[in-house]
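Fold this sequence, please.
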Amino acid sequence: MKHLKLFIPVAAFLAASVFFYMGLFSDPTDVKNANLQRPMPEFSLPDLMQPEKTYHREDLLGEVTLINVWGTWCVTCRVELPYMTKLRQQGIKIVGVYYDNAAEAEFSGINLQQTQADVKQMLANLGNPFVFNIYDKDRDLSLDLGVTGAPESFLIDPEGQIIAHRRGAIDERVWQRDFAPLVAQYQGK
């Protein structure tokens, strides 16, 4: 019995070592999303630049669409915007979901005009890949999608099923590996 008590700390150390060793080689952006192979959630949210216009799930149907959750405060979003603009020029429908970081700050109110000015400037400087931008001020859609931050992207098929998900930037390598084969499948290429 005395020897068994000595084995417990050794076994615990070995188990923890294996766990941490496996973590060294994992991809932190490869987190499975529970919404894969499920329908895009229903929503009714305003356009960021024209708040009187409202978008719904139905506005995303009919063709393969890349939904990109982003914000002007997001450094990684700045990095991916030029490549995503190239994708739009290649005929990929990209819809933005604007993740307003100011909505979390208790000490400041949301200034929609300033947000719109910041968005216009950033898209003018880095490229505008978006057909339109949904303003998700209260994070209703983002929460339904399981978004943890920005950028995050979801590829939906023409019927509105989520068929791919990415946490982090989309660059050419990621696009060719994870998204292009799915787009080609639905476009019959």
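Residues 2-24 form the longest helix (23 residues). The longest strand covers residues 65-70.
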